[in-house]
């Protein structure tokens, strides 16, 4: 351990493991098996003109990267696109209505969309994004989230695919941050003392 790592580890205990890297890898693989057989997505072909896989930045970027690679090994090769929404600011609770801060840079056409997000929490983000993609002409919108915090739902929205049911804790890692930190952790963890 070099001096900088030593400083980091002393001032900053690692988050507690909630879902390990191994558990996540196995679950993402199983999700890809299910998704590949979804009626809206199977037989949709490959590449431009077929499925559009939309990653909600920023928290879903690691999940999306693993999921599209798992889909690829099952013969599904979607075009990948990104959009970005915000509701959290720097806090650990949604602090403002969902707003789109970056829109897709490709046309949807009349294509089936696979929407990938990190966490389904109050439901506002998934509802907003599904409506947005519908408005942009998606033939169908099928959603996959890594984590579902069902206890915190404010509106009636469910994802088509869920990686793990998640307890009502603020989580970080595997793409997800707290104030811009921890996105590179290979596992999903909780921060001691931080409630959702
Ligand atoms: P919703 O609109 O469903 O309340 O919130 C969904 C979004 O809030 C997620 O896409 C995620 O970006 C963020 N979010 C919700 N819970 C957590 C959490 O525990 N940790 C982190 N880092 N982000 C969260
Ligand atoms: Mg998100």
Structure in a nutshell:
This protein is of the alpha/beta class and 196 residues long. The protein is built from 4 helices and 9 strands. The protein has a 6-stranded mixed β-sheet, with helices on both faces. Strands 1-9-8 form a 3-stranded antiparallel β-sheet.
Which helices and strands, and how do they pair?
Elements (H helix, E strand, L loop, with lengths): L2 H9 L4 E4 L1 H16 L15 E6 L3 H12 L6 E8 L12 E4 L9 E9 L3 H12 L4 E9 L12 E5 L3 E4 L15 E8 L1
Parallel strand pairs: 2-3, 2-5, 5-6, 6-7
Antiparallel strand pairs: 1-9, 3-4, 8-9
Overall description:
The chain has 196 residues and is an alpha/beta fold. Helices cover 25% and strands 29% of the residues. The chain is built from four helices and nine strands; from the N terminus they run αβαβαβββαββββ. The chain has helices spanning 3-11, 21-36, 61-72, 124-135, and strands spanning 16-19, 52-57, 79-86, 99-102, 112-120, 140-148, 161-165, 169-172, 188-195. Strands 4-3-2-5-6-7 form a six-stranded mixed beta sheet, sandwiched between helices. Strands 1-9-8 form a three-stranded antiparallel beta sheet. Helix 2 packs across helix 3 (61-72).
């Amino acid at each position: 351990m070099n001096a900088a790592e030593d400083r980091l580890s002393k001032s900053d205990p690692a988050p507690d493991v909630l879902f390990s890297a191994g558990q996540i890898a196995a679950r993402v693989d199983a999700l890809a098996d299910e998704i590949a057989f979804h009626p809206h997505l199977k037989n949709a072909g490959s590449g431009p003109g077929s499925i559009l896989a939309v990653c909600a930045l920023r928290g879903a970027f690691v999940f999306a990267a693993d999921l599209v690679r798992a889909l690829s090994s099952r013969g599904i090769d979607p075009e990948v696109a990104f959009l970005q929404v915000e509701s959290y600011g720097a806090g650990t609770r949604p602090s403002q209505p969902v707003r789109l801060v970056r829109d897709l840079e490709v046309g949807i056409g009349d294509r089936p969309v696979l929407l990938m997000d990190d966490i389904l929490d109050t439901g506002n983000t998934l509802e907003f994004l599904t409506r947005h993609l519908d408005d942009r002409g998606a033939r169908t919108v099928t959603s996959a989230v890594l984590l579902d915090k069902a206890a915190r739902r404010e509106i009636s929205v469910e994802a088509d695919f869920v990686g793990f049911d998640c307890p009502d804790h603020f989580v970080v890692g595997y793409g997800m941050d707290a104030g811009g930190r921890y996105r590179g952790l290979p596992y999903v963890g909780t921060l001691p003392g931080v409630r959702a």
